[in-house]
Known about the structure:
Blueprint: H1 2-21, E1 42-49, H2 52-64, E2 78-86, E3 91-100, E4 108-111, E5 114-117, E6 119-123, E7 133-138, H3 145-157, E8 165-172, E9 175-183, H4 187-192, E10 200-203, H5 227-235, E11 240-242, H6 254-275, H7 292-295, H8 300-315, E12 328-332, E13 337-341, H9 364-377, H10 380-389, H11 396-419, H12 422-427, H13 437-448, E14 452-459, E15 462-466, E16 472-476, H14 479-486, E17 491-492, E18 495-502, E19 516-520, E20 523-527, E21 531-536, E22 541-546, E23 553-556, E24 559-561, E25 564-568, E26 592-611, E27 615-634, E28 637-642, E29 645-656, E30 661-664, E31 667-686, E32 690-708, E33 712-730, E34 740-757, E35 762-768
Amino acid sequence: MNKKIAVLFFIFISSSIASAEKPFFSQPFCEKDLYQNDNLQIKSIDVKIKKYRKWTENGIRIITGNFRWIPDKYKKRFKADIIVEYENSLKCSFQGSVRHNGDQKDHIKLIDNSIIQSLDIHLKTGHIYGITKFKLLLNNTRGVFEDEIFLTTMLRKLNYLAPRTMYLNAKINNVSAKMIFQEKAVKEMLEYNLRREGPIYEGDERFLFSLAKDIPDNNLSNWSIGMVPLLESGVNAMLAKQVNTKLIFMNEMNPNISFNALSNLNLIYLLYSNMYKNEKNNFFYSDYTLSNELLGFYQPDKILKLDAYNLLMNSANASHGLAANNRKYYWNSFGSYFEPVNYDSNANFSKKPSMIYLPLSRTIEDGFIYLENLLGDIDIVSLNAEINFSGIKENINTTELKINLLQKNLKLVKKLFQNHDQDLITYNNKTEINESMWTKYLSALNKINTDIMTVRQIKKKEFEVCDKSLNCKNTSFNTEEMEMILDGSLVLKGIDYQYLGNKISKNNLTSNLNYNHFKFGNSHFYYDSKIDYLYNEEKNEFNVYQMEPGARAFFIKGKLKDVTINLYGNHKNEKLNNTPKNFPVDINSLTACLSFIDMEVENINLNATNSTCEDSINLINVKGKIDEVNIRNSFLDGLDIDFSNIEIHSVMIDNAKNDCLDVSAGSYKFDILNLSNCGDKGVSVGEKSNVIIKKAKINSSSIGIASKDSSITELSELKLKDMQTCVSAYNKKQEYSGAFLKVNTFECRDFVKKLDVDKYSKIFIDEEL
């Protein structure tokens, strides 16, 4: 060990001197041009860490430290320049910060007397393909890296949440290596996968390595040195935590959404820790996973999707990503279930599956059929193109062979299921959670940390805090403290706080989707207690009545065709002295009085009056054609459309206190727009949308049309009157670039400012009247 330290010290001094002689690469920031690099492959990434001496010293201490699990004190952030070179030789320089990434020492090694290690990188300026937070990983840390890239790409094609992953040339302080680029599970990843921003959770490893932290770094395996039993003690004290806790500062409802979801997920983790090793089970903690029946809230379609995910991971020998401590979940508030986020899978397609992972749902056989169909229907040409863009060069035959290999492995997994002890499978179907299960958890927790307070939520901002002797008292926390409770970092007067869940009489899951349900055709209509509805079959009209300001309803899944849907907002004409209830979102993250989610539409009409929500009507991930939209008197936005591909013949909106029409992250065509009295924008186009408008007439608005954040907006004819600003194009969010706005025939009267465009964007006007 002493010889190793001496060699590394020599490397440190030599490289520091060399660094001092060579100044860091300096280049102006690559402006976020309209013509982006999203369709260009990355040639290389060069990371220049500014405090080079301290960074190198930190790396030496990790390598020479007599520990197996890298302490957090070696994961502090350093400022850096990140230079990206694309295939067209364009170089973009971004400011950011980096830290060491990884729990064990497989994430750091010596190459030719230089240190190379996995990095966690946050860009402070600019973006790479819309990504601002990502990891650069040594290629031995993700199983077979070609299979990892194949798996993450395929999962996205199958509508699962998986990070964009690439294989590229990297250089860290002049040390070159091939590395894996993988985006982090944050807002940009959700929106790229057409999900609205919401809570993301993961296994809380805060106590996992506590008892094993002093195990020395030597040649003995984790099993031989006695580490595994210590890790399992940590697993028994593991619940979940939220990773994107800043959400709770956005509005008053988000803390409730976050705490309610975490309460449910903690119960699911509690069942896991009580089941993987008990009087009947004797599984290693990573050979057992979480219950899909609970994660799917007993909804057959959600359980089916979750089962197919587990079976695919099993078939890809990517079960490392099924271990409870490695799992990540997105709380899908619209569907009311925990959606898996692929992470740290260690895929290896060529290895034959040797076991199946319990618990299995009672409908697992349907999961096999569902996955067989998914793999059989996948677009291999498109999949191959995306894999090649990600830095893996393989022909179409290789892609097809890998799909075939997964299909063969799935058959092996099915045999493992059929040959498994069926009584044991049935025993592990158990999903009932009872109060006594907390005994094992609290016992394990107190062995690890005797100075700990457990926290339960009683109601909004009110909590019950208990010491290890279960002496409890009611207390309240400010928003900053609630954030730290969610992410497992709250320490007050040297005492750690651990969140357990809601204070409820029975420890069963509580669904946020407390809506009434009506099956309408092959779609589903959900509505809260303050909504009435009436379907007139003769006229094919569906009328929705808002009996109280802020009440909500939504259609989800299926298809609506040749129907007129009318929203009568604030039906009782109640006077609004304050903002409506559940503003701006309700417990299910709905912003509109009437929403349409994950569905197709054909030749329908939408009408709304006097709505009392942030949006009158909201379309989310909707495809198809709409004939007419008519909206009058909106509390804020009139029509809001997200993640959709929609054609609308005619839109008439009058008197919206914010935007009349707001579209984002999709493709949209409008024949006729007639908008008036818009408090902010007549039309707001954002988040990489493509919009084509034939004729637009907008009167009395702060801004006529705004195209922003990588959006392209084209109009054949635009007539504006009574504007502060006629048209605008600009970049607002870091993860996007500039915008484009083109008008063939343009007329604007009675305005203060005609054009407002930033240096990243373009406005073209062919003919001005």
